[in-house]
């Protein structure tokens, strides 16, 4: 894959994930005008930019359906792995430099990192449908919030929302005198794998039979299927994935510190 196409992929990922906010901050006018401007800057066909964006859409909470029928190609999967944990502000800064001043494009470490976005656009042999806190993740969490008393068969259960705490689980359910820990995953389609973070897997091993992995799938067809796995650390045998991740740091030069 050409280097400019890799840069376009990152930009398209930002457009898909943050949608209206992304288009507004780039300030190129309409969505079509934005695709044309990005294409002109990077030397990529504007329709390619749009198609790249559409490939990411099933992962995100925006009005477009995207290509939910297709598995995410290898190159797109790598972009999600590398940039998916960045804040909107950090991802915008990367896209801004890609498009406006191009300083980042010429950094050797950035070029090296983008080398992980492979030439081949073939899908991975084993499918990993990324369950980010986008459309599937949010819908799965909403589904659980509406149905958890029925799912755990306890109308008196008390729910504590821990999604913002980064503890390796989304919810604590107080039921029958004990705390139960629930991690929620969602799939847009009927089949596909899931990703668990290091914290989630560690929590599963720590809490054992008090930890539940809930998978809600097939949201695209509006016929949600439930899979509830108790003690997943014992019942599942996942493959460890070590992924390169882009981290944004801010470097202050020595000359800027003089006299401060």
UniProtKB/TrEMBL annotation:
InterPro entries to which the protein is assigned, alphabetical: NOV_C
Taxonomic placement: Bacteria, Candidatus Scatousia
Name by which UniProt lists this protein: DUF3883 domain-containing protein
Pfam families, alphabetized: NOV_C (PF13020)
All residue ranges annotated as the Protein NO VEIN C-terminal domain in the record: 140-223
């Amino acid at each position: 894959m050409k280097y400019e196409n890799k840069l376009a992929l990152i930009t398209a990922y930002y457009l898909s994930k943050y949608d209206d906010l992304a288009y507004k901050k780039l300030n190129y006018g309409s969505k079509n005008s934005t695709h044309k401007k990005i294409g002109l800057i990077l030397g990529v066909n504007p329709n390619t930019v749009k198609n790249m964006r559409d490939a990411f859409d099933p992962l995100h909470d925006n009005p477009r359906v995207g290509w939910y029928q297709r598995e995410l190609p290898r190159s797109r999967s790598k972009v999600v792995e590398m940039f998916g944990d960045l804040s909107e502000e950090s991802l915008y800064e990367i896209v801004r430099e890609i498009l406006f001043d191009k300083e980042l494009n010429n950094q050797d470490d950035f070029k090296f990192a983008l080398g992980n976005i492979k030439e081949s656009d073939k899908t991975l042999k084993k499918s990993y449908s990324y369950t980010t806190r986008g459309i599937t993740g949010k819908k799965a969490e909403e589904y659980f919030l509406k149905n958890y008393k029925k799912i755990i068969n306890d109308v008196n259960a008390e729910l504590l929302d821990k999604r913002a705490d980064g503890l390796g689980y989304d919810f604590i359910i107080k039921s029958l005198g004990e705390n139960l820990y629930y991690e929620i995953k969602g799939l847009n389609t009927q089949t596909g794998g899931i990703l668990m973070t290091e914290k989630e897997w560690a929590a599963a091993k720590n809490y054992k039979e008090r930890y539940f992995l809930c998978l809600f799938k097939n949201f695209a067809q509006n016929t949600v299927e439930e899979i509830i796995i108790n003690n997943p650390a014992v019942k599942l045998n996942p493959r460890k994935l070590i992924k390169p991740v882009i981290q944004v740091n801010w470097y202050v030069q020595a000359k800027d510190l003089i006299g401060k």
